[in-house]
Amino acid sequence: MEDPKLKRPEIVSDDSLVLYSNQYSYYCQKVLWALNEKHISFTKYEIDVANDEHFSEWFLELNPRGELPVLQKGLLVVPGSSPILAYLEENYPKDKPLKLPRTAGGKIVNLKNTLEKLPIGVITMGSFLHPRTVVSPKSPFVQPVRYTILERDETTSGRLRDYAKLFPAFSEVLLRKADFHDRKREVLASEQYYLKLLDILDDVLDNAESELARSNDEGPWITGGEFTSVDISLGCLLYRLYVLGLEDRFWTAGKRPELEIYFNKTMATESFQNTLPTKTSLLKTIWLNTPSSYKAGIAAFSFSSMIIGSTLLKR
Predict the structure, then answer these.
(1) Nearest C-alpha neighbor of 280 from the set 51, 69, 23
(2) Per-residue pLDDT tens over the stretch 49-104
(3) Are 245 and 138 in contact (CB under 8 A)?
(4) Residue 45's beta-bridge partner residues?
């Protein structure tokens, strides 16, 4: 068990926005994208998830669930990507609004709600547990890192129960989280369940494909000419599927041509590129999460070859 007694960072001032984030989190990426799109000034604090900083006492005081992202402004604390996005829209409305237009139809509203409810963590871990479902995983989710993540995931519920004893004020939440983690692992062990989840994703992306085809004459985004929070949700989903190595199943080779065009166009935007880790950061992450048995082989060739496939990386 890692030492959770990490010091709280002294970076908060009364007027500044602070985002507690992790560069590989889908939910953090959504918030980062919105902040960049709206040109809002903020300070980002990178949480060391690999060393359980999100289960340290100071962070549990911000979010007892130990989950990211968390936004803080003075004494105000907003946990979770959806509440944060709502807060930004309400308090920074003039900084490029991301709300759906009033003219948005029911299908777009339903798509927005569905995208927000997708179990991204389950989709991610399932791709590690059932590798035959993926073709070409990208950084940071290359084979050695996936192995390390899976190995660490096996001990998560035990670590949560240890932290519950260490921090009694948060024990109830942490114990519930540990029980949920055990149930999730049991369900995810079934490849049949995971394949059904991918089928659900097919339905979601079919709806997105239809909406993109409909909005073609109005503009480049899913509601037409205006970039909205639905584009953030859909764009982040497509990027996560891409780095997991699932793009061939869902949109390449003419499967969903509108979605493929949208993916390439969206990923090229400056505001999205600003959400990505640098190549240096990726290399460091891969190296630190690579088991020793893999490192011996890696030393025999250029380590940078592990990230050649990630053409969307921030330069």
Answers:
(1) 23
(2) 999 999 999 999 999 999 999 999 999 999 999 999 999 999 998 888 999 888 88
(3) yes
(4) 20
